[in-house]
Amino acid sequence: MEASNVKKETLIFEELQCANCANKIEAEVEELSEVKSAKMNFSMKRLEIEATGDLERLVQDISEIAHDIEPGTIVKRKNNQSNKRELKLEGLSCANCANKIEDNVKQLANVEQAHLNFSSKKLTVKVEEEGLSEKIIAETKEIINDLEPDVIVKEETEEALHEDTSAFNDTMKKESGRLLSGALFFALALLLDLSFTGELMLYGMAYLIVGYKVLTKAVKDMFKGQLFDENFLMTIATIGAFAIGEFPEGVAVMLFYEVGELFQDLAVNRSRNSIQKLMDIRPDIANLKEDGELRQVDPNQLQIGDTIVVKAGEKVPVDGQVIDGEAMVDTAALTGESVPRKVEEGEEILSGSINQDGLLTVRVEKEFKDSTVSKILDLVENAASEKAPTENFITKFARYYTPAVVFGALGLAFIPPLLISGAVLSDWIYRALIFLVVSCPCALVVSIPLGFFGGIGSASKKGILIKGGNYLEALNELDTVVFDKTGTLTEGVFDVQTVVPATGWTEEELLEAAAVVEYNSNHPIAQSILEAYQGPAIEQKTISDYQEIAGKGLSARSDEQEILAGNHKLMEANGINYQAADEVGTIIYIAVDGNYAGYIAIDDKIKSDSKSALQNLKDLGIERVVMLTGDNEQVAQRVAEELGVDNYYAGLLPDEKVDKMEEILEENQDGKSAFVGDGINDAPVLARSDIGVAMGGLGSDAAIEAADIVLMKDKPSNLTEAVKVAHFTRKIVWQNIVLALGVKGLVLLLGAFGMATMWEAVFADVGVALLAVLNAIRIIKK
């Protein structure tokens, strides 16, 4: 399969409630010849696929797989494109008419693509220009009305995570009514004194009402060869109870299994709602200003350069620059920081922020799909696709656990009666049925992914973006943390401390020479020199031959003079006879036409929480803290001593930082090593480390791309919060593993010795699953 032909797609699975079914869907989709990889995110009801060929047809195949495994599941493609619209055609029952609709819509002017999925009754229309989409949708509706007048057309605007909860509530009410009806027949059968035939009829009615969903699924599973499916096993167990005359237990097992599944669905839905609230930063509308008038539009429709107005109480829809007004904005949803910050004219404002007061006029700097809010949502929503090793282990374990228990049940049913004198076959069959009831691994396959996703959601609430459960779990094995200095442990805001001119030069002349050579640089050091310079305005046209010399400094020409500004390496490389400075700080030596002109000392403040953050990391079990910096030895030593780092390396070029990181990784074979940097200059080291952590990544494309974890608040102490979340998540996950396997193992053992009934077996199955899900919710709430 050629990589160039591989396309990535996100599919959303509406009404998907069964975690075990989700794993089966993932496994079957991976077996399709066009699919290179498939990663199911059960918590978000999403499947990430990499595939070749016709994606529309592939989605249809995947829809059929999903419907076979869990009937009622609706598969749709995630819509990230503003020029793509989706229509739901309710009441469409004619396949031939569906083909006609698709053909006619394809022929409309400016329609790039149209596809009607008859099974899901969804029409997807992609237009060439977003401005024409409303007109084309209107024409599409006319075509549908002409061909199928009774079809009701609804535009789909919400994804599965944000679907109306009333549909879920209606389903729960129907299920509750069905189970109550079955329970009524069951109660009558228990209370009334009936003949054998009467008991069989009442218990049978109760059994069919309560268990018809399980029974129908089981029959379908049997024809597909899925003999280890929980529906098939539950059917065999309960029918077996009827066969040996245990009518009450047969109905009770099915009833409590279904009640447990109902409560489990409620718990999972509650968990999803909690995650949705954590990510409730998606803006609903944007106030587009055109010709002095305001018009409400979808944020997807905004273009770079548009002018929007953000009123008090509204969410900022896209990243932009304030061009008029000032206000206090709440950035808690982005950074976890509860204290509002003030924005005013000329400042950047990020999507997802909430305008608390005032009126802001903003120029759009990024389209919605590239804005901070969109990136955060994608990052968090897709994080669960990167499974932690524990999740992968549980998935593999579940594949072997159920068949092992089933074969154990067969052996338990038939071997003892053959070997033990006086053993009654029906007694051992009853014990075997207990094994079948306990065999479903739902408690693990639901709660473990939910736990890791809850940890990722909890971290995002604190302003920590973790790209996957694998990185969250890796934080538990962290024993070495390597920090960049500038902008990570220090503020990265430089101030000129001293100006020391050489003989024949004044401070003003030295500052002017430095300002000229630094004029075209965006480096914080250059900015500090330009701020300190108070002389006549520098003219760009007088500067030529500007050059950045990696790891050394800058050179430029002005008024026929060659000016050098940089560290001692630059002076030595050019044979400049300079006077070494004996000061703590970053030293910038200046030379003009090969003659030494003096030096400027610049210093950077240590962040207020750096020292406590490093100490807290030590308290959490981090064995070694290292600092890497391109700054000089004196500055590095001062910062290292003040913060108490275990080791530091100074004067490093970007490639030398990578080499040093590789040395540290080589030394630390038994644990994980993290590198914490600014996410822009340190991208190569971030990529090379076990865990790349970007500081102050808010709005930074490079940070989100290069790092595995992004600390949005720009505080080293956020890393300790991330480690704490990882520790708590691991604690809950292992509590669930021990609970599920412990209870199931105990009931299996008691059942084998005839000391447990099906009632205990049902608790070991759905009861434990429910408890595990509720326990996992604790992570989200933390």
From TrEMBL:
PROSITE patterns assigned: ATPASE_E1_E2, HMA_2
Keywords, in A-Z order: ATP-binding, Cadmium, Cell membrane, Magnesium, Membrane, Metal-binding, Nucleotide-binding, Phosphoprotein, Translocase, Transmembrane, Transmembrane helix, Zinc
Chief site of localization: membrane
Membrane-crossing residue ranges in chain numbering: 179-212, 232-257, 400-420, 432-453, 737-756, 762-780
Gene Ontology molecular function: ATP binding; ATP hydrolysis activity; metal ion binding; P-type cadmium transporter activity; P-type zinc transporter activity
The keyword Oxidoreductase is annotated on this UniProt entry: no
SUPFAM superfamilies, per the entry: Calcium ATPase, transduction domain A, Calcium ATPase, transmembrane domain M, HAD-like, HMA, heavy metal-associated domain
Stored Gene3D superfamilies: 3.30.70.100, Calcium-transporting ATPase, cytoplasmic domain N, Calcium-transporting ATPase, cytoplasmic transduction domain A, HAD superfamily/HAD-like
Pfam families registered for this protein in UniProt: E1-E2_ATPase, HMA, Hydrolase
UniProt membrane topology term: Multi-pass membrane protein
Compartments (UniProt record): Cell membrane
Highest taxon in the source lineage: Bacteria
Cellular component GO terms held in the UniProt record: plasma membrane
InterPro entries documented for this protein: ATPase_P-typ_cyto_dom_N, ATPase_P-typ_P_site, ATPase_P-typ_TM_dom_sf, ATPase_P-typ_transduc_dom_A_sf, ATPase_P-type_domA, Cation_Transport_ATPase_IB, HAD-like_sf, HAD_sf
Family (UniProt): Belongs to the cation transport ATPase (P-type) (TC 3.A.3) family. Type IB subfamily.
Name of the protein described by the UniProt record: Cd2+/Zn2+-exporting ATPase
